[in-house]
Design goal:
The longest helix is centred in the last third of the chain and has 21 residues. By secondary structure, the protein is an alpha/beta fold. It has 19 helices and 18 strands. Helix 2 packs across helix 14, helix 11 packs parallel to helix 14 and helix 17 packs across helix 19. Strands 5, 6, 7, 8, 10, 12, 13 and 16 form an eight-stranded mixed sheet that branches. The structure holds 2-acetamido-2-deoxy-beta-D-glucopyranose (NAG) (2 copies). The site of one 2-acetamido-2-deoxy-beta-D-glucopyranose has 13 residues, from strand 4, helix 10 and helix 11.
């Protein structure tokens, strides 16, 4: 892992770079309570979204702390020092390596922890990357891990139903010509690395499947437009196709905030996600919907796997080094990092953003599929597969309780017979977080589910933690397809709300649970059949049963019911 970082930095050691200093936020508990009040129907502050200034006043650093960080950076030669509107990040530019005596640079080019002022939580270094894909990671160390994003190979079974956009819309009862009409409605997809889309591909998709896509409303967020051929490019294309076909005539913002290869391969991803959500949360305008298809095993999952491997004759370090060779499997640095990302999700929710994340494609045990044994791996892959099958291994960001997790369905025969999406190796992600507590709105529903017969062994998960997914949509190309489909659908509902003078929906999960519990089968159609065990066998996985389950949540959209319960507040 470290080798990768140093490699990236060597190439740009002399150029300008930035340090982003994240200050420890104040009053995070108070803020979290406010976040839940805003998201919970019936509370006095329900849907009373906050401004950046309101939020800064709660979580922002004190003037004294900000001054200490600004002075620290200045005395080390930093210039163009700016403070984010949320008062939780200070950024400085450096033209050369800062004077050592003050910043005590660590080997990775980031100031050593003991030189930080006490109020600092993380320091992130940003180096200019000239589209570094394929240059900066030593590809011999990176085993290609099968990615789920290439849908055609998965769905191309002979007898498979016709999963065209118009058929999917028909299955959900969405009028095929329904278009957004409010100029303000915004939906966003994000990814780093090669993430992007190509206009010719989108034009072809529009021609073949969704003639009403408004190409003029699909715009890039940054100068990074993606690189055809990369995994994340395929993801980006699928995201854009789906969200623009379901959120017809909604402005679609395609965001790629870091093109470094490590953001697509290894732990650069977590850093890029933290950087993106923190920066987005502090922007003047935020989108109404953010759909995120990318992710990997959570930091807590990777910690768990390696701690267990260390009891099976491997050292912790061997396991971590091995993980660093597994492409797109462990992409977060620490649980502290995933907690900080989750706080940024809360800020976005409190500002009115509905965030959705794909539930993953490896059922409840893997990020994609089992580890592949190789000569010389010292039995690591076999042991990690044993550990993975004996426990539920969640993925992130979807396991975060502060976003809506979206699973996948497919059809048996025709669209009126939905089941959990799975192929021989892949399947709708589901399970239980290791790091994050179960939020209040899930407790009743999930307890009812876990009391049903056929559950995996009780010691394979912690029943007090956040369970996922929440809802589902078509996912034959993976949950990277279902998530932007629901993203577009929520954007349409929000468009209707804005047209009637209502606020957007923000973090919508508590309302989803309330609607689904009170009016079963009205806004979401239950999906029964399937299991998240996949390669580990059904006994180790969660079954898709009646009602909510850890495969498909409450099920797939029923447009008329969603309009009834989400487009107005009556
Ligand atoms: C992009 O991410 C890499 C890996 O974390 C980091 O080294 C680099 O500085 C980042 N670049 C920018 C512009 O944020
Ligand atoms: C598309 O959205 C714009 C607002 O941005 C609106 O003026 C236009 O009427 C919409 N088109 C359709 C077909 O509804």
């Amino acid at each position: 892992m470290r080798a990768v970082l140093i490699f990236v930095l060597l190439g740009s050691a002399l150029a300008h770079f930035h340090l982003d200093v994240h200050l420890r936020q104040s009053n995070v508990d108070v803020f979290e309570k406010t976040f839940w009040d805003i998201a919970t129907p019936g509370s006095d502050s329900y849907l009373k979204f906050l401004s950046r200034e309101d939020i800064a006043a709660v979580i922002g650093a004190s003037d004294a702390d900000l001054a200490s960080v600004q002075n620290w950076l200045k005395s080390a030669g930093g210039f163009d020092i700016t403070t984010s509107a949320l008062r939780d990040t200070v950024t400085a530019t450096f033209s050369s390596t800062p004077s050592d005596s003050i910043l005590k640079m660590g080997r990775n080019g980031i100031p050593h922890k003991d030189s930080h002022p006490a109020c600092v939580q993380f320091v992130v270094r940003r180096d200019p990357v000239e589209s570094a894909f394929s240059k900066s990671v030593d590809s011999r160390r990176v085993d290609r891990h099968p990615s789920s994003s290439v849908g055609s190979s998965i769905s191309a079974m002979d007898s498979s139903p016709d999963y065209s956009i118009s058929n999917i819309k028909a299955a959900y009862g969405i009028p095929v010509d329904l278009q957004a009409s409010n100029d303000a409605t915004r939906q966003m997809v994000w990814g780093p690395g090669t993430f992007g889309f190509s206009e010719p591909y989108l034009t072809k998709f529009k021609h073949d499947e969704a003639p009403l896509i408004n190409m003029d409303k699909v715009v890039f967020d940054t100068e990074n437009h993606g690189e055809p051929g990369g995994d994340n490019f395929m993801e980006g294309q699928l995201d854009v196709d789906m969200i623009s076909a379901f959120g017809l005539n909604v402005t679609t913002v395609v965001s790629n905030t870091n093109t470094s290869a490590s953001t697509e391969e290894t732990t650069g991803f977590g850093a890029a996600l933290l950087d993106f959500v923190t920066e987005l949360a502090a922007r003047e305008t935020v989108p109404h919907v953010l759909s995120m298809s990318l992710g990997s095993l959570s930091a807590a999952s990777c910690d768990y796997l390696c701690t267990q491997a260390a009891t099976m004759g491997h050292t912790l370090e061997e396991c971590q080094d091995y993980m660093a060779t597994q492409r797109q499997v462990c992409m977060y640095l620490s649980q502290e990092q995933t907690a900080a990302i989750s706080t940024a999700f809360q800020v976005l929710g409190a500002r009115g953003v509905t965030i959705l994340g794909s539930s993953g494609d490896g059922g409840s045990h893997f990020s994609f599929s089992p580890f592949v044994p190789q000569e010389g791996d010292n039995g690591m892959a076999v042991d990690l597969n044993t550990i993975s099958c004996a426990h539920q291994i969640p993925v992130f960001p979807t396991a975060s309780p502060y976003i809506v997790s979206v699973g996948g369905e497919m059809w048996e025969g025709d669209s009126s017979h939905p089941v959990t999406w799975s192929s021989s190796t892949y399947g709708s992600g589901g399970g239980v977080s290791i790091q994050f507590d179960m939020p209040e709105h899930q407790k009743k529903t999930v307890a009812t589910y876990l009391a049903r017969p056929g559950m995996p062994p009780a010691d394979s998960y912690d029943a007090t933690k956040r369970a996922y997914p929440d809802i589902s949509a078509l996912g034959v190309s993976g949950t990277s397809q279902s998530c932007p489909i629901l993203g577009g659908i929520f954007a349409m509902l929000i468009d209707m709300r804005l047209n009637s003078g209502l606020p957007p929906l923000g973090f919508v999960a508590p309302r989803i649970y309330q609607v689904a519990e009170e009016f079963p089968g009205v806004a979401f159609e239950d999906i029964i059949g399937g299991n998240s065990g996949l390669a580990c066998g059904d006994e180790g996985g969660f079954p898709a049963t009646e009602g909510w389950d850890a495969n498909t949540g409450f099920g797939r959209p029923i447009w008329a019911g969603m309009v009834q319960h989400f487009a107005s507040d009556k």
